[in-house]
Structure formats: C-alpha cells, structure tokens
Amino acid sequence: MRQQLVIVGAGPRGTGILERLAANAPEPYDGPGLDIHLVDPHPPGGGRIWRQAQSPLLWMNSQAEDVTMFTDETVAMAGPVREGPTLHEWAGLDGRTFPDRRLAGRYLHWVYERALAALPRGVTVHHHPRRALRVGGPRGGRQQVWLEGRARPLLADLVILTLGHLDAEPDAEQAALTAYAREHGLVHLPPDFTADSDLAALRPGEPVLVRGFGLAFVDLMVLLTEGRGGRYEGETYVPSGREPVLYAGSRRGVPYHSKIGYDWTGDRPPLPRFLGSAEVDELLARRGGFDFRRDVWPLVEKELGFAHYHRLFAAHPGRTAMAWADFEEKYAAAGGPAESRALVAAAVPDPADRLDLTALDRPLDGLRYASHEDFQDGLRGYIEADLTRRHDPAHSQDLGVFLGLLSVYGQLVRLGDTGPWWHGFFSYLASGPPGPRLRQMLALSRAGVLRFVGAGMSVTAEDGVFRATSPTVPGFSVAARALVEARLPEPTIARARNSLLRELHADGAAATPGGLLRVDPRDGRILDGAGRPHPRRFALGPYTGARTPGAFTRPRTGGPAFRQNDATARAVLAFLNASPVRVP
Q: For tag attachment on the chain, is the N or C end more exposed, with fewer CB atoms within 10 Å?
C-alpha cells in the first residue's frame, strides 16, 4: 500500500517542505510509493498571503534580490543544497525593486511547480482546495485529516501543519469594542490581514482611528488612498476625495524603520560571537529554565553591539578613538552593560555613532509636544531623518546591526517561544517598509489625509464614539466613529479560529507560556504537556514556539526557516523509510 503524507497549508512553508522533500528524497527515501496531499483553499505556492488574486498596489516589504526560496551553502542543514534563482533573477527585475505581492505569488507557484518536477518517480502530489478541520488518530497508527465538505477523512502516515498566519477569535478587549460599535452604530475592524479586511464602511472625509504603525498599517494606508483613486505627483499627494482621515498611533508612536537602501561592502562581522550555539546550549541546560530579559537579552544586546561596532571600526575608522583589536578585547571582557557603555564612550566620541537599543525601541519616550500640529511637524522630521540615515552608507553600522539581528534570530529559534516583545522588536528594526512607502506617508501627512497621534496611544469607547489620546501631546484627543486595529491577530492556539489547532490543543498538544503551539525545535514535531514529541505530527510556522522571521529569506544569510524545512523533511523521509510496507 502506498504511503500517505498530508501537508496542511500550501503557501511558502508548505512549498518549502515540498522542495526539501524533493531535494532529500533521492538520498534517504526508498519506500513503496508516496502520495502527498496538499490541503489549502488557496492556490499552491503563494497560499493566502501571497495569492495572485489581490490588489497590485500591495508590495512585498523586501527587495527582489533579497527574496529566495532556495538553499545555499550558508544554511546549516544535513540535506543537500539545491540552489535556484532569487525573485529578481527569476523575474528579470532590477534587484532593488520592491515587487508587488502578485508577482511574488507567481514566483512561489513556479517554485512549487519546480519542486513537483524534482520529486522522484513513485511520489504523487494531490492538491485539495479545502480547509482542514481536524486531525485524529492514535499516536502509533495512521492519522485522519478531516476536510471541509468531504465526508471521509484523508488517511495519513504523517501530518505536517504549515498553516502560516492565523485568524483569531477576539480577546476580551476586542470583543468589548466590537459590541460597543454594534450598539452605537460604529465601525470596529479587529486585527486581521489587511488585504482581507472589508474597508468599505470607512467613509470619505471622516476620521478613522488606527492602532498599529507597522506593515499592516502600510497596507491599510495604501488601500485607503491610492486604492480609492488618489495619486502621487512627486512628493505631493493629490487626493481623490474618497479618502478618510487616518489618525494613527501605536505603543511606540512611530512607523517601523525604513528598509536600508544601500549594499554591503567589505568584510561582514564574524557572527555569531556572543550568542551562538554554545550559549544557547547553556541556556537550554539550565535546570530552572531561563528568563528572556534577565538571561537572554544581555547576550542579544552584546551581539548586536558587536555587529554595530565591528562595522563602525572597519568602515568608518575616523569616527573611532581606539584600535579595533583593543576595543574588541575590552568589549569581550566587559562584565556588564555599565562597563560596556564606559568603553564605548571612550572609544566612540560621537554619541550618534553609539548603539542605544533602548532609545531605538522607544524614540518618543519623555518627549512632549505643545500642540497636535507641533507633533505633526516633529514626527515628519523623525521620518525624514530615518529615511536619510537608512539610505546613507556613512551609517553602515546600521546594516551591521541588521546582520546581527538575523544571526540572533537564527539562534533564538532553538529556545522556543521567547515572547512577543522580541519578535516585535526585530520586525520594527529589521522588517520595516520600503523607503518609498515612508515617503508616501510624509506626503499623506502634508496633505492632511494622515495625522499622527503619538506613543502609548490609548482608545476609549464612551459617549457613543471612540476616542484616542496619547501622552506625547498632553490634552489632545480625537473622536471618531471608526476604529481599525492595524495588526495581525496574535497567533495563539487557544483563540485561533482554525478548528484544527483548537482541537489539537484540546487533544493534548501543548502550548508555550505565550500561547503558541509547542514543538520540538529540532524537527518540528508537536509536543504534548509532558514534552513528548508526537511521532506522526509536525508543525512549522509563526503560530509555533519555533517561529522564524519568515518562510523565505535573503540569500546567504543562513535561512533558519530553510534549516527547519530540511530537518522536518528528513525526519519525515526517515520515518517513512522505517515504516513497514502495508498490504492492501
């Protein structure tokens, strides 16, 4: 009897697993034949997020040369390297272009088709354009995967969940806001993937409160301006008259940092240096566990500082006051943050050349503006300064920090769920919007279509409206009949709308303290409450405790998602090889 593998989710992660199965199968697979069932209501390759049926105005937030689905020699994995073209090579684009998501979807579908063609004889792939509802079956036997609209389940020797971003049931605050909106005839859009949100209820000319200043906000901004007929003439936005007025704020009160707009030259910092496999092994071996802020963050801070100063000393030595060899020795020996700061103060004369992660994380802390208009001027100046710096190679130590962030994230994957703060901080510094989007933000602000609220934005529901305030502008408030939560839902399995995950959890699959699905970081096997890996169930993606920055990554940066894909594919093939051949 042919063996059966079910992969739930046919987006970049599911496609990446298929590519790794194809790459590894000629070496370790020698079974009786294999059927792979891809379950996803959206087309294989792009899946939901990168589907081709979406607005052409929505871009990737990565340059075309920084997007690949193929491994290279920097990926630490057991399987073979199978190189392939980046998005820009495949599409014939300028590598510095920020492609639209529909083009990314076409690239991903091509990768999917290439993976199919690379599978060995005896392996057949079937796409089921349906939703998976639940997974059942004993630990020691075949699994059953129930699909929407199908009477009988798929039978599976193994199941891999590659679900991507999840919809979620509202938490108590969101449910209360939705109920208030219903009672008073208001509009409340809870956290969602912006391309799927119904924005028709946001009326032209009316104020709309927006909480969130990351990539979901950028999508919202685009769909409510250019998406409603507005256009840009140089640095000026020409409204169509159909736009609402967006009042945007967040915890930080500022947008994510711009993508860096220049290339790396010279030697890269030798990473990891202070947070590598040995340090992670030590953290994992601690009997009492570890605390992120107390035990992990000091190592992260030292690693990012090393990447920053390595680049500063190498590329801009005229702005340093010490030989690199002396600085490196003293930096490595520094006993704590205070000692490191003293060393940096002596070695780097200009404070603007020093790395201050606290100031980067909370740039508006302690700042107060006399009026709302003063703050608009102030935040436009902040965005303009960020754009200037992130496109000026004279500040290439910022690119060193970016490489440090990638290295750190690759190590932290092994620690499991480190909490939402780290993931948000990484995204804020390393995964912000393209520079042109921030220039559009400035144009919208000057046109009065976008208004900045400030840091620590608070929203109350009272007197029949939503009202926003921020300590950044004392005494200012704005009322609106519409509130949009511009962020993705938290990927917790307890509140996931996906019934498959909720039932897995109810059936014994464990959650991390942060509510993510607990998996073995080595190969993605789902863990139960006792820490036992399920022999037949795997999970990869942002809803797991071993989440990575993305399903695809920049070439030659180690790609932790690729490493995970390879380990899971090899574990799957090893299991299938060891399973006895069944007689029909």
A: C
